[in-house]
Amino acid sequence: MVNINQDHWTTSRWEQEIRVRLGEATDGQAPLVNINADDTREFDAIFLGGGAGGRFGAAYLRAMGGRPLIIDRWPFLGGSCPHHACVPHHVFSDVAAQLMLERTFSGRLWFQDMQGKMVSIREIVEMFRRGRTGPHAFMNFQSKEQLDLEFVLGSRARIVDAHTLAVGGQIYHANNLVLSTGASPKPFTIDTQGMEGVFNYASLVDTLEYEPGPTVVVVGGGKTAIEYGCFFNATGRRTIIVSRHQPLTMINDAETRAYLLERMAEQGMEFWANAELTAIEGDGRVNAVAIRTISGGIKKVETDFVFLGLGERPNSQEAQETLGVEVDTNGAVKVDTRMQTSIPNVYAVGDLVGSPMEMFKARKGGMYAARNIMGEEAHYHFKKYPDFMHTHYEVCWLGLGEEQARERYRNVVVLKLPPDNPDGQSVALPAGDRMMLYVMMKPHLSGFQKLVIDGDTRRIVGAFHVGCGAKDGFQYLAPMVRNGLTVDELGEMDELFLNPSYFIQLCRLRAGSKVLRGM
């Protein structure tokens, strides 16, 4: 082991160490150990996994006066978010949004002519690959020097029992175990082992070493597939989305979903729904795929780049086999509202416990596990949450879609922008954050917003936004909606000129009506 407890590395020093270790095989490396030998207390908890759930849970437990230990196979804390998932995803979505702005106004105003121009995917991936050690280094520095967290990094641990882990030739005991081992990309039904040119979100940023050709095939119809598909499309490539079902079904409002699909199709994306990729052809490297279409026929598409956006499966196998924790049919570890598994003193958090596989859930789950370990009864209900997706737009949704609401309530009122216009002319609303060029020159691309309301109680039961600048608004809107926010209360708020503020304006236009009517 490499004992660094008495060392005080700068972020630059951490970055150097991480770069070296990432360039080597992770198995067999001597772990980086930061344990305070002067602290003789038993560990209150070992957090197996130092991603969002483990790091934030350990920090919270430490803040409450406890003693946590984090063990992670990577030489850095932060988990998959800065390495494979959130950060590259946001890099690619920013690139997609900028490129679509350039393409939409190609050759007009100050915009360059993008007609027929294909830009590099590899260059963006390599830029991210070089830059990702910066966030890694910061989280290691912050965790050690500012949060006083103890950890063992850079070597894979083995679960011995509910209180014991073995790593780097050492045994570590704790009163409790918090499993935070995350999830991995779901495997494809076709064996792609050893086939170059087939990627998922992790292998794309780790292994892409060539420039993809003019056609990309994306498998899947969920968030990962659509978001990455938008990036590939924005680079100027023909992008075919192959999904067994209709795409974007996670957006539970038909009108919002239709707006998005129409805009994506207008930007050149091809959606082959109710279809299946049946074969990947090539001698060691993909050169074509076979796709069974909705009609039942087989179409061959020449391509050297296939992206598998099939979602994720929790990394629960070792915990099942060693500890016997209960899991659901998708392999997610079952927990109660205290984040406790079926095994006493064993907790689980983050992607390991299933949907939603989002950062906020991992961080809060770690916090709630810590609170319960430290003797405070705390319950976390993470099923009702706002969701989001990055296409060429930012997309956010919360609560019930219009169709769901009409099944539940007798008097549903809908407020939306743009309004239904009898002459069919595009209306430049909503007009807001980073949408103003679209408003002035391509109004039908300026976005879409919708509030779904129970007209009898005046409570807002659903909210949907397509545009830019809504994510922050939705994270505050969500708890208010859960607590019964009404049209009148939302109309009383003060708005700034951002897209989410249109919800306030719409409500204010109707709040004085004793009988609500739609808009």
UniProtKB/TrEMBL annotation:
One of its GO terms (biological process) is 2-oxoglutarate metabolic process. It comes from the Bacteria. Keywords: FAD, Flavoprotein, NAD. Coiled coil: none annotated. Residues 44-366 form the FAD/NAD(P)-binding domain. Its cofactor is FAD. Residues 386-492 form the Pyridine nucleotide-disulphide oxidoreductase dimerisation domain. Pfam families: Pyr_redox_2, Pyr_redox_dim. One of its GO terms (molecular function) is flavin adenine dinucleotide binding. Belongs to the class-I pyridine nucleotide-disulfide oxidoreductase family. This is Dihydrolipoamide dehydrogenase. It comes from Candidatus Methylumidiphilus alinenensis.
